[in-house]
Amino acid sequence: MTIDRKAHMSRRTVIKAAAATSAAGLVPGLNTAVYAAGSDKPEKEEVRIGFIPLTDCASVVMASVLGFDKKYGVKIIPTKEASWAGVRDKLVNGELDMAHVLYGLIYGVHLGIAGPKKDMAVLMTLNNNGQAITLSKKLADKGAVDGPSLAKVMAAEKREYTFAQTFPTGTHAMWIYYWLASAGINPFKDAKAITVPPPQMVANMRVGNMDGFCVGEPWGHRAIMDGIGITAVTTQDIWKDHPEKVLGTTGDFVKKYPNTTRAVMMAILEAGRWIDAGLQNKMKMAETVADKSYVNTGVDAINQRILGRYQNGLGKTWDDPNHMKFFNDGAVNFPYLSDGMWFLTQHKRWGLIKEHPDYLNVAKQINQIDLYKSVASAMKISVPKDVMRTSKLIDGVVWDGKDPKKYADGFAIKA
């Protein structure tokens, strides 16, 4: 469903006026196209970008709503999609030019294990953190409130346990499988895994179709507000500053429209910088994306966790400095090769791919490092010296991208 931008003109005008004041302080000439109208002029000026109703679609939406797209000579048309499978199909057949999309979906399509095989591209990471694993209130009432207690309940009361993710090769599948395994639960042998579109998670838990799910916000917090679930763990507690959604497209689009690709990346980077610039901007973002045209939920379901104010549904509250971030002085957006390789290691671990791929080569094919560096340089955004980074996950295992075969084979619990 394409967003009717006319219908939101009044709302947009108000927010844009507020944004211009703050954004103009970051980059002069907000309303002036910055391309030279020569060799770097965008080849395609209207760009359809698919998104799923989730808080982390915000930088795509705000790039359009605040007019950052026009600054760079393009018009972003945010296109609301119902499921990740729909996003995949429309990216592959060209109905969408780009998408706010799961990291592992792009890798799965590139390898041909998540639908039709097609060369794909990760242009940049859109956000770090901000997802959660929710257990049903019924399960929590029996004592399952975290990984170890869930394992005890499952061992004591034998039955089929069902956990939902949003796409078989996607981020949420990998987060919940990793977390279950860290508690000694094999997600395939000890439980049943199902796929449910993000906006339908809460409704499905309400009618008892699952014991737990992993999804992006606001749906974890929505389950708490509705009294049907509790937050067992946040994904930033599984992997601090993990990569989450990316700006994805096909390899063909990058080759055919390089200037358009760069222009869109700049507009979205600027929107992410605007969101992370302060409390007021986050509140405006929450108000905007809560609209029925985007996430379609109450502002309260979005603005608490976007500010790092968490509750778990059992009376515990905390301020989390590692909440969802869209820019973080540029630290969010670099498409590390090691991030992409990590998803391949998990695809191998869980049997989604049978043989070890050429991890580094596949990541180099997909992640557009040189393109990102050129965009970041033009915007004076710092980039890391190394295309790999080192992270310690919830089980204490360190991932640094140096020996992906050993890493993938090293887990005691696997397919």
Automatic annotation (TrEMBL):
Key word Transport present in the record? yes
Locations listed in the record: Endomembrane system
PROSITE patterns listed in its UniProt record: TAT
List membrane-spanning regions.
Answer: none
Q: What is its main location?
A: membrane
InterPro entries associated with the record: NrtA/CpmA_ABC-bd_dom, TAT_signal
What are the entry keywords?
A: Cell inner membrane, Cell membrane, Membrane, Signal, Transport
Similarity comment text for this entry: Belongs to the CmpA/NrtA family.
Name it: CmpA/NrtA family ABC transporter substrate-binding protein
